TrEMBL record:
Residues 1-21 are annotated as: Disordered. This is Nlrc3 protein. InterPro entries: Leu-rich_rpt, LRR-containing, LRR_dom_sf. The chain crosses the membrane at residues 520-538, 585-614, 634-656. The keyword Transmembrane helix applies. Keywords: Membrane, Transmembrane, Transmembrane helix. Gene3D superfamilies: Ribonuclease Inhibitor. SMART domains: LRR_RI. The gene is Nlrc3. Pfam families: LRR_6. The keyword Membrane applies.
Amino acid sequence: MRRRASTGADSQASVAAMGPREKRPWYSDLRDPAALADLLLDPRIDVRLIRGTYLEKLHQAKQTVIRRQEIETEADAVVTPEELLRWKTDEGFRRRVRIIGVSHVWETMEHPDPTGHQLGMLVNARLWPDKWSWYFFDYMSIYQFYRGYQYSRQQRCFDAAMLHMHFFYAHEHTYTYCIESLTPPDQIDGDRKIEVFFTPDGRGESGQVQEVQIQALNANTTPYSHRGWCEAEMQWSSMRDRLQTHSLGSRCLHPWNRAPMPPNVFQEKVLQKDLKFTHRNNSDQVVQLQARVFMDKALNCTSLSLTRLPRDQVVVLGRALCFYKKLQTLSVTNSILDKEGCEELGKNLRVKMLNLTRNTMLDGSLAALSAGLVDNRSVLHANLSCLLLGDAHVKAIADVLRSQSSQLQTLDLSKNEIEDDGAAALAEVLPANQCLRNLILCSNRISTVGATAFARAIQTGEVTLQMLDLDQNEFAELGKSALVVAADEAWRKGVRRFVVTFRPHGKKELKPKLQTLRIWMMRVAVTTQTLCYLLHVLRVLTWWREFLAFAKYVEYLQKDPEVSSSYSSEQLDAARARAWSGAWLLLPAAVLLLVILCYVGGLALDFIFAALLWHQGFWFRGLSLGLKKPWRTLRKFGFVGCRAFLVVLTLMLACFRSWSFTARLTMYITVADVALQGASRAHDLGALILRVIHLTSRQCKALSDVAEPFTV
């Protein structure tokens, strides 16, 4: 292997092969999938990816991993060049396949996993289907000791692979699985024999592939965190834009928790001998490669997302941020932030979007972060939700908003412990701050006093906010009324783009997928209601046609002498009167059409007016001022009128049951109407079911969050 299984002769061969022309990688693009595919297809490097199905096969047979030189004879073990070409060109196929770099320890000098412990952890992880998992496992993927003489093909391929080792851990289209643990002592069977390349005197020329007892191998018990190559691999993995690294622990699977380490910090760690290398020359090579990869990633990275960082790693992240010249978004979640780490973050923040939700803020951390944000002109959007912030913390944030240097446009302080004093501190700085556009304070403990403080600030007419979210707080109707009056007063003073929301506790938004389903249910309901109205019109027109046709027929009969002699004049007059009595439906039909026009017209005017309000930034302003009330009343009248008129038409049907065609048609229409009305009302029940599902899922999520251990 490249770093752990080499002997002295192996080390000398590697050093000699590192000529001046070969010190820089042949491939450098860590984002383009074509570059990774070309590297895997390059015969000068000759790397093999191992199928997940083959690892499963080895594990089921109670075997362990096989050396690269011997794996060529195994059937269906390695990924073929044809599959790599398809992965390069077919985007759909590329989304299904996961290329995984395995970062692990070598438990012996001759074999990384003599007991099969690491193989079992890989197979049992089940993070991705085996069919679509392609693994880079160094012992199986690149040529191992013994590779022949100094300039042999295997040695040249090994040296080329060493130059590009970072590709399998830092490329944006790869994932990293980390195995930190060693085989437990009680699971080691020293008498078990495995097949390895073994040389008793350390010279490759005298060695051969043979079965050797595990107890005869040279054990290496250095912990994972103290191994130079392992640390380098995890540093490369932490430099991806997205979180694509997982630690395969013995108890649970969790994302990796490391921050990108600046080259000077990594070099200092190596010089202090905190990291151990199998060979001295490896340390210089790893330091140079780590610096090259870090600078390449840092200079091109625009978004960085990290989670579960211990407090010391937050300090490392703060020192690394000054190298990220193009970084736009920084997300640090589920981590521990102390004063020192927040000071480093505050000094070097040059991002536009900062997400620090769901972190543990230690004493002095938020004050240190706020001090760094006072003179910061780059951060435009900050998410500080779910941090258990109180009034004292919010006062420090208010100092940031009071600063003339602050350019914050969106501030999310939802799901904290903010009370009236904190709300008053924020309300006090709103008239003076001309940059803040969105202030989110939902799910806090703000009462009527805090709501009144915001109302006084809004009434000044100097607030540049466009949205103030006070949903799910604790103020009563008095606070709501104060906010509505303040919003109206601000409207009159020219504040034309302001929205305030204050939904009470218990009225929570659905999850996006459930909300989409509810919207489609409402669309179906509106469509069926429209069909009902069209059926009503069809019913009236059908009756009208029948009445007019029969009345004309009776008049024709009265003019026919033969018919007149067959029926008495009283019979014909009665038939004609009964037919023309259907003319009374002309008036109800006209009323029905008028009602429908009122409904449709009111609905159309409602949408037109709402669109105008939306264009001016006032979707809710018209609702509070009552400007939409006439149109809403007209629409409601149209709906109630249509339903009432349906009852009247049904009663009138009893007077004309002698026309079988009309009766049957009306019966069919009525049945269809009832069915459509049932479908229209079904969305209410569906919405209720979705609400129950939503609340249940939230409760289960809350229980899982409490039960999940937080690893530092």
